[in-house]
Amino acid sequence: MDVGPISLYEAARMGDYKLVRWIVEYSRASLNEFDDDHRTALHYAAESGNLQVFEYLTDRCGLDPLQGDAGLVTPWDIVHENATRAELNGTAEGYKQIESYLEGKYGHCYNDFYRNPIRSGFFPDPSICRVGEDYYMVNSSFIFFPCIPISHSRDLVHWEIIGHAITEPKWAYLEGLEGGRGYWAPDISYYEGRFYIAATYRLNDTGPVYRRQMVVSSDRPEGPYSEPVFIDEDGIDPGFFNDEDGRRYMLLNRGARIFELDRSASKKISEPVLLYYGSNKRAPEGPHIYKKDGYYYLLQAEGGTGPGHRATVSRSRELMGIYEPCPYNPIMRQTDEGAVIQRCGHGCLVDTPDGRWYMVYLCGRKLGDGYSILGRETALDPVTWTADGWPIVNGLKGPSCMQVKPFADDRDDCSDEIGVSPCGLPFDYMTPRPFEKGTLVYEATEDGQIFTIKGCSAPLSSIDARNIVLRRQTSFSFEYDVNMEIPELKDGQSAGITGYYDENTYFTFGLKSAEGKIHVFSHEHIGDEDRWTISEEALENASGSIKLSMNTVDFVRTLSYSINGEECIWHTLTDVCYLCDEGLSKGKRFTGATVGMFAYAGTENDLTVRFTDPIYTEI
Q: Please, what is the average pLDDT of the chain?
């Protein structure tokens, strides 16, 4: 009889308690192994509906009912889905028994849990602060405008963008910067009735200055914020610390260096001092300080932003004193190389009004051979304090897939309507670098959204392109549909939709003109390589509107169009992994995949294209 791991899965799926026990206790089967979908034997036991098997594998074998598989599906998800489905045919009893067992084990019902990540898609390097019962979070935006999204929540789980730190184009200073530069790792702080946001302003590697620290402030969390001031101190990832005596400080890497600020946080008034280099000693960054119970706690991100990323902590009785590392370090790290949620680290702590603590932190969900096409995202897990006074995240189990909501009552006050930035864009859209006034106009009408783009003579492969408007990709599978009024194109001009990472990697799909005729086309730009697919036959009597569609499943994108109700599947891009951080070794790649619209004017400057009703639907 085969008693390997597969037999254990099969026995668990059959609900054969005696066979499961024999395999676990007498065979060489290992409970540390996973199947090809990263499922444990408990996932299979959940399918059986056998409470005895499920309890045994959970209580006696220590398998986790909240551990996600390759699709972040947990054993409890399987139980709950089967219990709901079985209600229809009267076979739900076993699944209901398991659900009752799980509710007793965790003290919560299924609907009391949230899922990580809490901010999906391109939302890296989170920083959070609380004012009363409101939470505010900022994330890196790099060269995208408006700069540094500010999100609001009342329950730490549901978030919506309410503003940006920089919405005035002339204050962005992003012209000429390569993709991946711009505003890194912002921090938000509340001090004496005013909100302060700092970020590293990362320039190109042309020197002599590579990094400066930017600070803005406002009396309203959503802004408008003041004109940026810059502090000339090298380093990345600025973190504010406001001490109990009212003195203000900024921290920067390498390691954790600290210097004092004036009360306006606009001027450095002391020289930097190294507090502590870090526990892991590799790429220490993202420093934050918190004061609690007489200790200054120093939180750092270490290990680089790849699979070795982690969060560590140290503490001292004196702000400038000697910091001792936590014996439980790293307090957050993904140790399961096969799990979907990876590269966990760069975090920020926040407390609740009733004294509980949480950490928001950077993570990335891998797809295929380690590609994180959604970019670096934001996750949330609870923080507990040990008897000897150290903070640990999620019981040192690494990132959670399924976690109890911080608040039992319904505090989700996120609006279904998308707000509009002072720069004129809806909060869910952005542009690579600022656009000139009048070149991009957005209207929200009763009939839908309208984007009017004035074509730019610079192609999408240029850092001078100002003809692109984008939104974050937030799901591995989605549909993106846009109606485009067919423009009068001159030779060399084009317009349509795009899947975009930066000027080095993107694809476009739409219409272009050649020899006086309009053709459907798609184009992939991957570093120095260009791949074109152009229709042999021109569109006859091209007028009215065309619906452009992008259907995405993982790395496969099916492009189609529809004119006068007749749909045509145009082309399938079979592997767009170049839209990932890992997709090309060129420049700084820290962002994430986006989708949107573009208009390219070629050598002419008289192209204007009208797009209506862009619809992004997660599948």
A: 95
